[in-house]
Write a structure and sequence with these properties.
There is one protein chain. It contains 8 helices and 7 strands, in the order E-H-E-H-E-H-E-H-E-H-E-H-H-H-E. With 252 residues, it is of the alpha/beta class. The chain has a single domain, classed as 3-Layer(aba) Sandwich (Rossmann fold), CATH 3.40.50.720. Helix 1 runs parallel beside helix 2, helix 1 packs across helix 8 and helix 3 packs parallel to helix 4. The longest helix is centred in the middle third of the chain and has 29 residues. The termini are far apart. The model has no long low-confidence stretch (mean pLDDT 96).
């Protein structure tokens, strides 16, 4: 039985690990042709190998999404290989070192805003330009519950993810009558390598993070990945929306 994305071309940035890798594999299971992009060439190639071992067709492109020329070349590469770009998951992102707002370094601020917000804007810019040619496409931006609420000691991350939510709405309105849907996904705390670095192997820190969710656990990358696939395939009357997946955290 064909998947819901059979033959569609999908680009996943930050596809070298975590949610990005899970998304690439989930999209492939639905029949998509998957382009994996990441600055980390090792991680990106590992994801590509996993795709190929699963019998999927894919490519890997090393790219820094904070650089316009690299994003433009990335999108052009996808189009040159498959002739079009149907879907894009703008997932690449990072977090700063935990710090109170007045102790956050300018370097941390610039790095997080550049990757999490400017990088999403650049991806949207070049993805939409190609999608306009066919008047068809779907984009999902990686936001966060921190794009909806604040958390302490993460001023750059919170600001960047609020920016992604606003940018998603702006893009959706610009594209609403042009055949292109743009949505964002807002996960809670997800059990990824980035989260592992945050809790530094401390079981008590893990327990505290898990306890923040009414469901009593963190989410998994595959849960977020399956939601991305759904947004690409079945959410045909949804645009400008922020899909929250946080185990009930923001319901409190």
């Amino acid at each position: 039985m064909a998947g819901s994305l059979e033959g569609k071309t999908c680009l996943v940035t930050g596809g070298g690990s975590g949610i990005g890798r899970a998304a690439a594999l989930a999209l492939a299971r639905e029949g998509a042709l998957v382009a994996v992009a990441d600055l980390d060439a090792g991680g990106g190639r590992e994801t590509l190998t996993a795709l190929q071992e699963a019998g999927a067709e894919g490519i890997f492109v090393q790219a820094d999404v904070t650089r316009a020329e690299e994003v433009e070349a990335l999108v052009e590469k996808v189009v040159s290989v498959w002739g079009r770009l149907d879907c894009a998951f703008n997932n690449a992102g990072t977090a700063e070192n935990a710090a109170l707002l007045w102790e956050c370094s300018e370097a941390d601020w610039d790095r997080v805003i550049a990757l999490n917000l400017k990088g999403v804007w650049l991806c949207l810019k070049y993805e939409i330009r190609w999608m306009l040619e066919r008047q068809e496409g779907v984009i999902v931006n990686m936001a966060s519950i921190t794009g909806l609420v604040g958390i302490p000691q993460a001023p750059a991350y919170v600001a960047s993810k609020h920016g992604v939510v606003g940018l998603t709405k702006a893009a959706a309105l610009d594209c609403a009558r042009l055949g292109i849907r743009v949505n964002a996904i807002c996960p809670g705390f997800i059990d990824t390598p980035l989260m592992d670095r945050f809790i530094a192997g401390d079981p008590q820190a893990r327990a505290r993070v898990e306890a923040r969710h009414p469901m009593g656990r963190m989410g998994t990358p595959d849960e977020i990945a399956r939601a991305v696939a759904w947004l690409f395939s079945d959410a045909t009357f949804m645009t400008g929306h922020t899909l929250t997946m946080d185990g009930g955290l923001t319901a409190r």
